[in-house]
Amino acid sequence: MSRATYKPVWDFPAAAREALRDKTLREALLRATGKFDEGRRALMSQLPRSEDLRRAAMLIKDDVLANLDTYLRRFSERVEAAGGTVYWAATGDEANEIIAQIARSRAIQNIVKSKSMVSEETKLNAYLLERGFHVVESDLGEFILQVASDRPSHIVVPVVHRTKEQIADILNRAFNANLSVEPTEMTRFAREKLRDEFARADMGITGCNFGCADTGTIVQVTNEGNGRLTTTWPRVHVVLMGIEKLIPSMNDLPVFLKLLARSATGQAMTVYTNLITGPRRSGEGDGAQELHVVLLDGGRTEVLGSPYRELLRCIRCGACLNTCPVYRSVGGHTYGSTYPGPIGSLLTPLCEGRKRFRDLPHASSLCGACYDACPVKINIPQMLVEMRRDQVRDGEAKLGERLLFKLWSVGMRSKLLYRLGAQFMRWGLTPWAKGGWARKLPGPFGGWTEYRDFGMPKKDPFHKQWKRLRDEEAE
Amino acid sequence: MEASLFITCLGDLFEPSIGVAMVRLLRKHGVALDFPEGQTCCGQPAFNTGNWDEARLVARRMMNVFEGSEYVVSPSASCTAMVREQFPVLFANEARELERARSLASRTYEFIEFLVKVLGVTEPNARFDGTLTYHYTCHQRALGLTEEAENLVRRIEGATYVPLERKEQCCGFGGAFAVKVSDVSGSMVNDKVDCIIRTGADAVVVNDTGCIMNIGGALRRRNVPIRVVHLARILAGEVTHP
Hints:
The structure holds two protein chains of two kinds. By secondary structure, chain A is α/β, with parallel strands linked by helices. Chain A has helices at residues 12-21, 23-46, 50-66, 68-81, 92-105, 117-122, 124-130, 140-147, 164-175, 183-200, 225-232, 253-265, 300-304, 319-323, 325-330, 341-352, 369-373, 380-393, 399-411, 415-429, 446-451, 462-474; strands at 85-89, 110-113, 134-137, 203-206, 210-212, 217-222, 236-242, 246-247, 272-276, 290-296, 433-434, 437-438, 454-455.
């Protein structure tokens, strides 16, 4: 997450306008997010004491965050005791270089990767490819993205922005194939391609859903067999994980497993749950011969020490994306960074610069659906308004808007000014109105009338009717 | 019983008929509603855009205006949530004001919430000759309200009730959001309107002024002859047919 190079301010409204023109994207998004969101609601409502579980998950994560130093030390000791090696990376590039160095020192050329958001964050693929390594994504969605030189638009379902027709097209073009739009056919094709890569690879890189501090166990939750192959087939397994991924104990795992799959994809359980404690031991039949665990800070300690700490509870289930009407409308690429949706609207400004991503805290109607969906009860809407407050406090808000609210706060503190102001607003708007409605408003309010009519303030506001109403009562 | 009407600025200026209906309906239930005349706005527009100093000034005034009220009742869940959830946040660092904020928060209710939870109303005792659907406004979530309003709508005499697809999805109002990210807001309200049209209803019940302005404006822009009505107006017998 380097801030050294200049990058222009990310214009969310412009990106959104662009995305909204893409009707295929909208259909793809609505279908997928709708399915996952409904699945989540259905399964969570069937889960006994789901509210208690969410609360438990929240408290466990808060304990981890309050004592992160202790848990990290314990986790790294246990990983090493089990025969693994632990590395610490302050930045994404440091993590990338550690991994490149592990490969170099073992003369490894061929690498397979399973899906990992943190590797998207560090831009690991690009880093390794630039340095001459052969890296292949083995998650089906990520494989398609790699072939198309695209990037994920969702935390859990990376290729959610593409329809099956578009995917068939991508594969046919890249491999000069003739696949139909049948998902099974495409999956079989990708699978065959990937088998060869697995057979050649000497290093497998994965992320980690949970790290158990008491056993040093890496937990990987996935629906595709590639995840397990990546951890077991190549001789070297590298785990790249954020430092917040820990849970205190293996005993806490059931709480999170119950919540994660339900929240993410509306499944009671994913197809694979891999628990990896150390590399292959003598006498064991499978598993990597070496296990390397790279723990990435990447701005996380800064968040830990800030009022936004509870963001680090996030278990990357993507429920807030699926339920968010903004995300559903515009998709993940519109957010301009690794983590999209409500959670990304906070993580990105915090980790990649609030000035550059100044629009993101405003990319929400504050409807609260994300907070309702979050399995670890992160109060996203509240933190969005807190970040807006920080922007105003630090002089990052637009001057016109600041002046408007200064004026507004004077008007709203006087009955007389409020009522006069209302009267002036009515008069001021009159030239634009016909029959009590305006079809086009001037200036910044034009955004409203681009999509809807504006109902004029009424001639008889309630405060003018009150006396008559009160006397009605006396009768 | 006595209660004070917190009409809200949008309710006062844009949808005064809701306030009229509330006064008449609550009178039927034996509640004498008064209207503290000094009231203006709760400060939510400033709060939501990050202008907390300005929001605090206006919120402080609101606490003065409703100082003596036993109950404060508002037709808007969004403004109620502002008082209940955010006033204590705004005054977290001022012990005396925090006390007052908490006091006002504990006395403030959204209208349907007041009817159902305080007055114990379970039957709408109202009539509507037509098909109704209902949009769940977002800030009910913040108040812990789930099916209170919908259950009343379902039992309105003479009405056919058709549930709204994605009824819990935000209509895209969001205050400043509607002008700052107007394209997304517009897309959201159009999606809402599409769902409303598919119900075939004559009217959609929406219990928050901002959402009424948004959904009503979009329906009108698209020439869709479906009415947007606050439940108070049906319950008070002021709206009985499409």
